[in-house]
Amino acid sequence: MSQNQFVDELELAPKLAVLKALAADEHVTRVAERVGLPQPTVSRWLAELGEQLGAPIITKTGRRVRLTRAGRLLAEAATRSLAALEPGLREVEEELDPEKGRVVLGFLHMLGRSVVPELVRGFRAEHPHVRFGLVQNARYTVVDKLLNGEIDLALVAPPPDGPEFASEVLFEQELIVVVPSTHRLASRRAVRLRDLEDEELIVLEHGYGLRQITDDMFAAAGITPKIAFESQEIETVRGLVAAGLGVALLTHAETTPPAGLRELPLAPRASRVFGLAWLKDHPLPPAVRAFRDHALRTHDVQR
Q1: What's the pTM?
Q2: Where are the alpha helices (DSSP H) in 25-68?
Q3: Alpha carbon 27 to chain centroid distance?
Q4: Which of 57, 113, 234, 249 has the most CB atoms within 10 Å of its CB?
Q5: Does the pLDDT of residue 13 top 70, yes or no?
Q6: Does residue 18 contact residue 31 with C-beta atoms inside 8 Å?
Q7: What is the mean pLDDT of residues 188-207?
């Protein structure tokens, strides 16, 4: 679409409103009052539309006007066009109003149990009309959706560090070693990464944030881990460990872990950092900005 064409279409929009009003009340003065325009402007627009069509769209009968057949057809088309446009205008209005907008938040599956519900609950207490789209997935998928503009905010660990992202740390979770209760390390008070060098390791698949953290930790220690199983779910990893099939680096279970497990701290202590991320050069709608600020304030209070 050319710039001139775009300008022409913008100028046509108020004329459609005049035609719609004229179909309901064939009185130019009252129509002008209804659409908030001077009566001479409305009269001029109606004359210009007739000239553009090559046929008049109104005929005068005393102080009133009557739509011609061409005018009636054009008014009906204007009414249909505005009916299609109005939902979009409402969406734009909601998007620009922090009390009526929509927030699309992407996050890791494990955060759906308590972290995200608590954040949303606290925000909705102050902004009850804001709607949410909640997208749960692996870290790499959530980050890709943020980059592609499919979501507004991403709550992941670790937060993305590319130049196109901005992020703030919200909280961290301690990393622990999970072993079967009958394992040789089960009686230890703490476990070093080097103690796992010869162990069969159960990990998440590539693309998951915890897998990236695990790989980075072993690489920094100069250890090549023995990967026995790769999974898509942390609870599946716990189950495999409980079955005696290996050991794992995880975070503390939010619910009661399976029987037969021991959770041991790492020495030195290590943690998993969760951050809230957004696109750096992409203006955030008011509702999204308000939720981001709420999440950051909540984090500051908790610290």
Answers
A1: 0.64
A2: 28-35, 39-53
A3: 48
A4: 249
A5: no
A6: yes
A7: 94
